[in-house]
Design brief:
Blueprint: H1 37-42, E1 51-59, H2 64-79, E2 85-92, E3 99-106, H3 109-120, H4 123-133, E4 137-147, E5 160-168, H5 173-182, E6 190-199, E7 204-211, H6 214-218, H7 225-233, E8 238-248
Antiparallel strand pairs: 1-3, 1-4, 2-3, 2-8, 4-6, 5-7, 5-8, 6-7
Helix pairs in contact: 2-4
Amino acid sequence: MRRRQRQDSGTPLTGDLTYRARIQRFHGKSGKEAIDLKAVIAGNPEKPGKIHEYRTYVMHPGTLDGYLQLVESKLQPLRQDRFGRLLGFWYSEFGTLNQVHHLWEFETLDHRQEQRRLLAHQKSWREEFLEKVLPAIQTQQINFLRPAITVNVPTVVSAFYEMRRYQAVVGKSAQLLQEVLRRPKSSECTLAGVWTSESPDPNEVLELSAYPDFQSRLEQGLQQPAQCKWAGTVQGLMLGMVSTMLLPAEISPLR
């Protein structure tokens, strides 16, 4: 798939971003900057009440390329800016393959429900997109997230992203969030986003990082001294962690 070079400087992904898209109705700046942890616990000071919807689809083998082509040709023309804001769109290259991941922003959960209802009544959306992509999808998972920091666009096109999902001990998610925000990162890593989960699991913390190449990610491996030291700080707060390596699709604002 073609990779486009990003020419603008890295900036937060704000509401006036023009390159947006939306996704279907189915069933069902970097870590170097200081973070105000008190503001994090109180809520996102820049976007109070914002809700992010993180969708993960497992595609039937052999259908991923056709699905992505349809997404890139139909998604933005059909949805435009009217039904929630697209923040990122990726597909997996490591671990579980044939996955797509996409992240959307809404004002509130009620706003999300209303936009989904309106989208479902769009005949062009149903006939030109849904009917063509539904047979390609094997399973779907939806998570509702609260952003802890502003979602940040890397200053350069990133080779890939890593989504980490930390499982907190019940009642410890706020403390785990603070430690995730403090996790050491190299100068080449961009902290793109951090969230706490609202549903279905309220004891998850998610962290999205961007890397220019795979070597820079390996330099932050779990056995590196700084990472080992950090791991000691989350003992008693975290039950486990799952990491997924993702490549950005052409329509993804986060690239």
